[in-house]
Each structure stands twice: as C-alpha cells, then as structure tokens.
Write a structure and sequence with these properties.
Largest sheet: 5 strands, mixed
Strand order of the largest sheet: 1-2-3-4-5
Number of domains: 1
Strand content: 5-15%
Helix content: 25-40%
CATH class: Alpha Beta
CATH superfamily: Eco RI Endonuclease, subunit A
Shape: globular
Structural class: alpha/beta
CATH architecture: 3-Layer(aba) Sandwich
CATH topology: ECO RI Endonuclease, Chain A
C-alpha cells in the first residue's frame, strides 16, 4: 500500500472514530476518502449501463409479435443503474456494484422479519447477458472473479437463512459479496476491497 493510501486510511479512521460500530456509515463517503490521491474513483449511480436494453436488436419475427411503436430508442433509458462503480483511471478497468440493505431474522425478532427481496434483486447481475456486458465495459475478463461486487447491509447480514442463501448463490465467488455487519466499520469494507478485489482492477 502506498504512502497516499496509508494517509487516506488514517483519515478514514479519524472520521469513523465514535461511529465504529455503525454499519450504516455512508458507503460513498468511505470510498471517497479512501480513494483520495489514488488511481481509483468511485462513480455514484454510474451511467455506463443506463441505455443497455434499448440497444438490444430484436429479430424481425419478434418485432412482429410484440408491440413495436415507432420511437427513438437512442433516447430511451432502458437499462440498469448500479449503485456504484469503482474505476482504476490508469487501467480503465471498472468494477460495478450494488448496495443491498434489508431486514433479517436476528435476536428478538421472528423468522418473518427476514422477508423481503432486495437480495434477490441482485441476482440479475448473474445473468449471462449482464456478466458479458459488464466484463466488456469494465475490462475485467479474469474468470477467477465476477465483474461486480454486492455489499449487503442491515440485519440480513446476520440472518441464518439469508446468509446461507447468498453464500450458496455466490459459491466459489465469495469475494464478490461482503456482509457489512453492524459491528464493522469502513475499515472492514475497504480491507475487503483492497485484499479481495483491487487486484482485478490493476
């Protein structure tokens, strides 16, 4: 880790003192501080995939079978907007990501507290089409990792059912999700990125 990165780490420690056990610490603030004077930038609500679906060309047969009004598709924002993207401005490699906050079954709550589907909505990232385009745009073609990162927050990070569910989904790609639990700080979040994902952007 370089001198600037160590300096930024100390800055974050100063900012987080007094909030050490609050998982709701702002994700964006954590990384904006950590990335000061580095080759990395954090895009909030990146627009790289905003018009993705509008660019999909359908066959004449399918166009005949569906409602097909004459519209200017170049202006349609039919796509997805991840919560963030981390870019190495030297290599131009980009890691897309989402933040999923959800309730969960924990102490003094019934199992029904784990209802909700925020975590399930992250599954769209696993689809062949999105993996392909995220690899293409982000230039992360290493099969050892996925071209996205999902950060989970809230009680879901301690829910005995949901944690098993998410762990099963990611399988061998466990580095591509992070359970930012209530007892953790921004340092834990940055450490996960530094130790598990940063190398794929270099």
């Amino acid at each position: 880790m370089g001198k600037n990165e160590l300096s930024n780490r100390e800055k974050w420690q100063d900012v987080s003192s007094g909030k050490a056990k609050i998982a709701e610490t702002n994700f964006y603030d954590v990384f904006n501080i950590a990335f000061e004077n580095t080759n990395y930038i954090l895009h909030k609500k990146p627009k790289h995939l905003k018009k993705l679906y509008a660019q999909i060309e359908l066959s004449k047969q399918i166009l005949y079978e569906i409602y097909n009004p004459e519209i200017d598709l170049s202006n349609r924002q039919w796509g997805i907007s991840p919560d963030f993207a981390i870019e190495n401005i030297e290599t131009k490699k980009i890691l897309f990501g989402e933040i999923k906050r959800q309730d969960g079954w924990v102490e003094e709550k019934p199992p029904s507290a784990g209802r909700g589907n925020a975590h399930e909505r992250s599954c769209k990232l696993f689809t062949p089409g999105l993996i392909k385009i995220c690899r293409n745009i982000g230039k992360i073609n290493n099969e050892a990792t996925l071209p996205f990162w999902v950060v989970f927050m809230g009680d879901i990070t301690r829910d005995p059912k949901r944690v098993r569910e998410i762990s099963f989904w990611f399988d061998e790609y466990s580095d591509n999700f992070f359970m930012w639990r209530p007892n953790m700080t921004g340092i834990d979040l940055i450490n996960h990125f530094d130790n598990k994902l940063k190398k794929y952007l270099d």
